[in-house]
Amino acid sequence: PIDPNFEKNREAVDEEDGVTVWGPVDPPEKLGIHGTHVAVDFDICIGDGACLEDCPVDVFSWVDTPDHPESEVKVEPAREDQCIDCMLCVDVCPVDAIDVDPG
Ligand code: SF4
Ligand code: F3S
Questions:
Q1: Percentage helix, strand, coil, to 5, in the chain?
Q2: Is residue 48 in contact with ligand 2, taking CB distance under 6 Å?
Q3: Is the pLDDT of residue 13 over 70?
Q4: Which of 2, 65, 98, 99 to mutate to test the pocket of ligand 2 (most atoms within 8 A of CB)?
Q5: Averaged over 62-68, what is the pLDDT?
Q6: What is 6-95's CATH topology?
Q7: What is this model's ipTM?
Q8: Domain ranges within the chain, ordered by starting residue
C-alpha cells in the first residue's frame, strides 16, 4: 500500500499538471507519488479506474504511462483541491494506492 507518511519519507521532486510529484522518480519504471492532499502512488496503481468512476467531485484524470510495469494508465489527482474527503476512492482502490488526508 501507499506510505501514509510519504511527505516525511520522500522529497517533492517535480510538478505535473499542477500536482506535486514525490520521488524517487525514474521513468518509465518509477513514477513516484502524485498529489499531496489526494495522493496516488503511481508505482502501485494498476489503472483499475474505480477511484475515477466513484469520485463525486471528479478529482481524477487519466494519464498515459507507457512501459510502466503495473499499468499503462494512471489517475492524476488533477483537481485535488476539490476533494470533499468522502474517502470513497481510498475504499474502492483494489491495491491501496491512494491516501487522502482530511483536514
Ligand atoms: Fe474524490 Fe472522495 Fe477521493 Fe476526495 S476522498 S478524491 S472526493 S473520492
Ligand atoms: Fe489506480 Fe486504484 Fe484508481 S488502481 S486507477 S488508484 S482505483
A1: 15, 25, 55
A2: yes
A3: yes
A4: 98
A5: 98
A6: Alpha-Beta Plaits (3.30.70)
A7: 0.99
A8: 6-95
Spatial neighbors of 61 by CB under 8 A, at least 6 apart, are 17, 52, 75, 76, 78, 79
Residues 6+ apart with CB under 8 A from 48: 93, 94, 95
Paired sense of beta strands 61-64 and 38-41, if any: unpaired
pLDDT of res. 81: 96
User: Is the pLDDT at 103 greater than 70, yes or no?
Assistant: no
Whether ligand 2 lies within 6 angstroms of the CB of 95 is answered as yes
Asked if residues 61 and 76 have their Cβ atoms less than 8 Å apart, the reply is yes
Stronger pLDDT, 18 or 58, i.e. the higher one = 58
Compute and round to an integer the Cα radius of gyration of the chain.
Answer: 12
Q: Has residue 23 got a pLDDT over 90?
A: yes
